[in-house]
Each structure stands twice: as structure tokens, then as C-alpha cells.
Design a protein that fits this description.
The complex is a heterodimer. By secondary structure, chain A is α+β, with helices and mostly antiparallel strands. Among the domains of chain A are: 92 residues, Penicillin-binding protein 2a (Domain 2), CATH 3.90.1310; 123 residues, DD-peptidase/beta-lactamase superfamily (Beta-lactamase). In chain A, strands 3-2-1-6-17-18 form a six-stranded mixed beta sheet, covered by helices on one side. A five-stranded antiparallel beta sheet of chain A has the order 8-7-22-21-20. A three-stranded antiparallel beta sheet of chain A has the order 13-15-14. Chain B is built from 17 helices and five strands. The longest helix of chain B is centred in the last third of the chain and has 34 residues. Classes of the chains: A alpha+beta, B mainly alpha. The interface between A and B is large, with 51 and 62 residues.
Amino acid sequence: MNRQIAQLFGLFVLLFAVLVAFTSYWSVLDAEGLEDNPSNRRALIREQKIPRGLILAADGDTVLARSIPRGRGEDRIFTRIYPTRGLFSHPVGYSFIRNGRISLEQSRNDALAGEEDEFESIFTGLEGKEREGLDVVTNLSVPGTEAAVAGLAGRKGAVVAIEPQTGKVRVMVSVPEYDANLIPTEFGRLNRDPNKPTLNRTTQELYPPGSTFKVVTATAALDSGKVTPESIIDGSSPREVSGVPLANAGGVSFGPISFTDALTNSVNTVFAQVGETIGRGTLVEYMKRFGFYEDPPLDYPDTQMVPSGIINGDGEYVEGGFDVGRVAIGQGGLEGEIRSAPLQMAQVAAAVANGGRLMKPQLTDRVVRKDGRVAERIEPDLQSRVMKPETADQLTAMMSRVVEEGTGTAAALSGITVAGKTGTAEVGANREFTQPWFIAFAPVDNPRMAIAVTVERTTGQGGTVAAPIAKQVLEALLGEGGG
Amino acid sequence: MSARTRELFGLLPVSLLVVAGFAAVLATRTEDIQDATLTYGAVFLGLCVVAHLFIRARLPDADPYLFPLAALLAAIGLVLIYRIDPELAREQAQWFVVGLVFFCATILLIRDHHVLERYRYLIAAGSIALLVLPRLPGIGAQVNGAFLAIELGPIKFQPAEFAKLGIIVFLASYLRETGDILVRPRLRPLPYQRQILLYGVPALLTLLAVLVLGLGPAGSVLLAVFVASLVAVLRERPSPKHFGPLLLVWGLAMLMLIFIRDLGSSLMFFGGFLALLYVATGRLSLVGVGVTMFFGGAFFFAEQVSHVRDRFDVWLDTFSTERVRCPTTGEVTEFVNCQGYQIAQSLFAQADGGLFGEGFGRSLLEAPGGNILIPAPHTDLIYSVLVNEAGLFGAAGLVGAYLLLVFRGFKISMLAADGFSKLLAVGLTSVLAIQVFVIVGGVTRVIPLTGVTLPLVSYGGSSLLANMVLLALLLIVSDSARRDRIRRGGLV
């Protein structure tokens, strides 16, 4: 009988091994599949029970999002409140059980929800602590944001300000904004609104950048050695580009003119020639160094960012075949038109301001535990080396002239030197509207802030519409005392 | 070190586990560890030491690991139940004390387990009566569609738990006597012409039956195995009257399926029977006939009896999002949120556990507003709660503890000298092991989920008492077996 007993034991060992195997399957191997099952509400319920961390402005004081408890005891749940209402709605976003979450609430969810890895959770388990969310301190400036909203004054548009040396995003304003507190009750209406208040125009919308793109063209031309600031180029107007005549703004014919003067006066015919000289390949290469053709490496959900780049009539990104002369001045045609998100243009300005070193844009400064310990500090991180420092110096000098005596004088600050570039794209079926732009950085000798401003479907020039807004925001940001 | 001293030292870590477990649960509950946890540990240790002293006095040579292992499982159960509902844990602790009394009483009353053989028909009749009780009007109570419990005033009682002991005692005694007659000594191999005839004709007939009846793959395999086993059994020309008990027990299992409507208990009984049959006869062919007859019957009734069929549907289509009218609430909802709810939630809870679990006392049992997330967490789904809180490692540890218990049980059987002792030990151990497989397999979707308890861990008085008696019987067998061995000098 003992042989049978041993065999029987073997059978039970096998059966118990099956039990452990199935348990491993459900608890570890297929755990993610089960967690994603729509019938599984455990994660949602657990999150409701955790006080989500605060989202704070750069001053570490202004609360942009906080959680308040409802109910008591086992039934206590937490819901989100956004004390600044619409002011920071685009960078901060919202988090509600029924509506999901977007923006920083989504991209920093792990920290805000206090999620820990397996080993950490053992220790908190041993300490017997309740799980709680961590606070996220952003780089967002309250005065800068207020100035941007005031500057846009209800006009649809976007303002992005970045610290060139660190990549800290100090202002991310998209108008119209939405009040995140209304999301649970008016989700449908906000999403159907033709003014698209829930669209973050700084990262999700692409606009023709107009002449601000000449900074990219100039970077490629100067850095590749094809042109110097002193090169004399014929600025006559009109001039045939790709078989079609191209005119300067107002039809002004400049004659032979230095490259510096051409930027100061935003001479289309000069830049179109320069574009043709450097060629499509070089232009696209420099665009990629600036971050075009890919989502910005921002701590923001991928679903809420769109790459800037040259897009053809079918809406596809193209790297060749386009009219390089017209793209070089920020336009294009059906074979390819340059389109850029405001954040991308702010990065262009920031790269020049930081000696050609483009830093990764970052909304978050640090993640802080409830007891004040810093759990994570986001360090400045190089995104790419766009150009040589000498090229950046040359561009800085040229862009300073734009504000001193060119198209961007409206951005001049008293006591602080500003370098910038205006842009005015024509939009609409009959080119009846404009898309004014201004990108800039200041102060010129030690840039502490780079900015991009644009207003959607309006009338007027970049120098008259966008530059004054940039001026207000720069004043607010630089007045913060280095911010 | 003597066996009893080893047992005593085995109990110490178990008590520490009780202290640590209660401390963890209390810590998540009230944020400060109360002295109560130490008291719980001390009381638990005290009770176990009393039982230990009793074993020391009455069964000095019994297996030293069985009792600490059982205490460990009971301790895990107490901590888990305490975490679910302190009031239930208090009741379970009382049941544990009563269980220890039953344990000691069994040891006191049955000095030699061979006396049980004398009463085997009485025991068998009593067990069957116990099984039928829940079906009687007035005292029977339906649990989840199965007739498992009887209610006598305030006492709710699951007689199947005790019936399983009685049936095993009966079968062990019966098979000890008839096991040798059931099969003859192995015959000379047949000449190959007759072998072809012997296996060829039934094989052809099987093929024909498969084609005519249009059986699916599962049915075909079942039929083929059945025919092959039957041929092998018939080849030994057993006397027909000895098939009686086999058919009787099969009929009993099927009856349980229909009347008690419980696949789990039915599987447990029949599995225990087959285990005993195999150990007693050493004939796989007999087991083959039994297994195929059981599954054939089960599939047949799965088609016929709606309660059994539902269990199969839930098992196979747990996550179906088909919209159905929910019989319990009357609302139209998705299958997974009604019939599949229990098993789906069991798996979701396990998925949340991961490798190390969420920690004792931290599992999510209810949604805010009182929606139950883990139904029956203290009985059927207690294993899911454990996976959720202690993770895969904790669960593997629990299964490992059961495996050690089974190992010790089989060891006792191997050491035992006489057939009845061997079969009794194997039967009792197997029925416990199968019960573990049935319920853990149910909540991990290996087999359809049925409502049996996780032995010694789940909340439930009858289950705990029955298993304490089972433990006592094993120790009694062990004591005499090991004493014999020691006397003969075979055991160090």
C-alpha cells in the first residue's frame, strides 16, 4: 500500500502546485489585465479613499488643487477642489472619478495618489500608516499667469514662459480656460463648447508661426556657416520663389541688405533665399534639434501634446518635398506648411537664450511628502544642443535689434534689454484674419526668461498685438525677483 | 528531543504569529498597538499548551508536527476573520475552544481507533442521515442554492462536515476487508490475438458511440477512458457483488449533487473514496471507471440541474459582459456584475495583492456606501482576502502549510502497520486535501466555485469542530503506529 500512498501524495503535490500556479497567474502575471477590467472598481474606490496631494504654484503657497473629505468613517471619500478656478486649469487639469483625469493631475498621478512600489508599501504597512498623496510643487508663477490672462484679455490665445537655463515652465496659459470645479456637473457642455475651453492651446493646437519661425531658419543658416550676420542679401520685392512671386510685408523693397537688418525688418525675400540656400535637409535637422516632429519632453500627458512640424495638405508630417523658401519664412503650401504649438516656439526662444542648449521643459519643481521631506526634485535636464554658443550670441544680438528698432519695439522694457522676434501669419479662407506672434527672452546679457505669445484669429500685427502681452508677462515674471 | 517537546516548540512561533497578526490588523484599525494583541497571543498559546499537555499525557508518541500545523492554520484564520469582523472572530475563537474540547474528548473516548470498525454500518447510516438532514423541511436551510446547513433554533450547523468523517471511517473499514477480494492477483498476460479482441472490440464500439451520439472532445475522452478502464477491470473477472459498494458510493455522490445541490461536497466525498479505493487495491482501472463515471454524471447533471449548470456557466464565462436579468436584484445588468460577481471580485482582489500583498488589515472589502466588494470574505473567499493582504507569498505559504499537513498525514499512514489504520489516515488526510483544492481551486477559477470551507481557516463552527476531530483521529492513529515502530526499533 505504501507505494500507492506515495503516488497519491505526488498527486496532491501536483494539485497544490496547480493552485499556486493559478494564484500566481491572477495575482501577478495577469494582474494588470484584471486591474484594467472595466468591471474592476477597486482602484477607483481606493483612490477615492486617499487624500490626493496638493498641487501648488511655484511660490509653494498658492494652492492650485486640493482634496476635501466627504462623509465619515469607512464611507469617507475625497473630492477635488480647484481654488484658483480657471486660472491654472490647463497645466493642472482635473481628477474626478466619473470624468477621469488630465494634465498634471494625470501625469503626476502616481505621486499625487501616493502610489508606492511593492517594497515601500511593505514598510508603510509595517508602520501602519494610512496611504496619503504627496504634494506636487509646480514651476508655475502666479503673477506671470495673471499677467498673461490679463494681457490676452479674453482673446483666444496662448502664452508660454520658460526659464532658459532650467527649462522650468513658469507660465502656461491658454484662453479660453475652464473652471475645473465645474467638470463633474458640466463635463458634456464644456467638451461641446465651440470655443474649445478644454483644449490646451499651448501644446494641443498648432498654428502657422509666421515670421517667428525665421529664428529657426536663421539658426540653421548661421550655425551651418552658410550665412553670417553681416552677409549682404538682396531684399528686393517681389521675388519669385518656387515659381510664385513672394512679396515683403507691405510690399517694401529693401534692396541689398545685411542678414541682421533682414531679421530686424523681417524681410521675407531674404529669408526665402536663405532657406533655399541651406536646403530642406538642413532646415529639418535644425527643427528636430529644437524639438519639432516629436512631443515635447514635458511632464504632461502624451495625449495632450501634438508635435510641431511641417504638415502637408493631408495632415501628414513631411520632411521633404515642401517649398523650403516659404517654410523658411513661417508659411508653406499644400506640399508642406510649417505649424507650431506655442510651447514649441517658447522653446525656440529658450534655446537661443541659453547659448544654444535647449533644456527639457518641466512643469513640476518637486514632489514633497506631508512631513515636508522632498520625495523627488526634478533637476534641469538637457533636451538637445541646438547650436554653437557663438551662433546663439549672434542671434541674440540680431533679436535685440528687433526690439530696439525693428518690429518688436512694443516689447521693450524700461531698464531691461529684451531680444525677440515678431510674427504675423495670415489665416482664414480669404486670409482675412491674422495670427500675431511674439517670441522673446530677457534680459539680453543674462536671459532669465523666454516667452512665446500668440493670439488666435484676430486682426493686427505680432508687434502690436502679441508683443505688448509679452512685455506685461515679462515684467511680472522678472519683477518677481529672479523668480 | 522527544516528539512532544518538538511539538511544544512548534507552537511558539505560531503564537508569535498570532501576536504579530493581531498587531498588524489593530495597527491599521486604531493606529496604536494595544496590549490586547499580546493577550490574544498569550491566550492562544495557553490553549494550545493545554491541548499539548493533553496529547503528551494520552498520545505521547503521536506525530509532533500535526498539531502545530493545525494551530498555525487556525491562527491565520483567526487573524483574517478578526480583520474582516472582530465580532465573528470572537465567535470563531469560542468555536476554537469548543473545537479543542471536541479534540480532547475524541482522544479520551477513542482509546483505540479500531473500535470504530465495529460500528461501521452504524456510522455509515448516521453519516447518510446527516447528509439528508438539510433537505428536511423545517430544519433545512439553503445557502446559495445548496442545501448545506440545518437550523435548530439559534444554532446553524453544516452536517456534511461531520458526515465526511463518518463516511471515511466506513470506507476505510469496508475497503480494508474487501480490498483484497475486489481485485484478484494479477493474471498471466493473454496471448496477443485475444488481447486485440479484448481491446479492439470495445475500442470500435466506443468509436461508433462517439460518432452516433456526436460527442464533443471532452465526452469522447471520458467515454474512451471509461471503456478502457472498464475493460481492464472486467479482464480481472471480479465478482459482480463487489461492484455494489462502488456503485453505491457513486450513486450517493450523484444524489448529493441533485439533492444537496453541492458540487463541492460531492467532489470531496467521491475524491476521498477514489483515493481510498486506489490505496486499497492499487488498481488505476478502478479509479478510471470511478472518475469517468463521476464526471459523466456531473456533466449530465450540469445540463439537467439549473443550479449546477449555473455554476459551470459562471466558471467558464466569468467576465462575460452579456446583459442579463439578475435573479437576485431583478435588474438588467452585465453577467460579470451579477452571476460572475463573486468569482470576478475574488480575482480582482487577488490581482490587487500582487507578490507581497497590501498588508494585513488593508484589503478593501466594501465600497463606500456599503457595496460589498468581496462577498463572503470570511468563508468562501477567505483565500482571496489572504492573497489580497499577504500576496502570492502569503498564499503560497498557506498552501505550503496545508501540503506539510497532508505530508504528515500520509507519513502516518505509511508508518501504520494494519490496513484499517493506513486507510483511515489516508482517507482523512485526502478528504482534507481535496477540500482545500476544491475551495482554493474555486476562488482561483481552476474549477467551478462551490461553497466549502477552507479547513481550519474559514469562519464556521461545524467545519472547525469536524476538522479538530479529524486531527484527533489522525493523532490517535499516529500514536499507535509510531509506538509500534518504536517498539520494533524502526523509528528514530
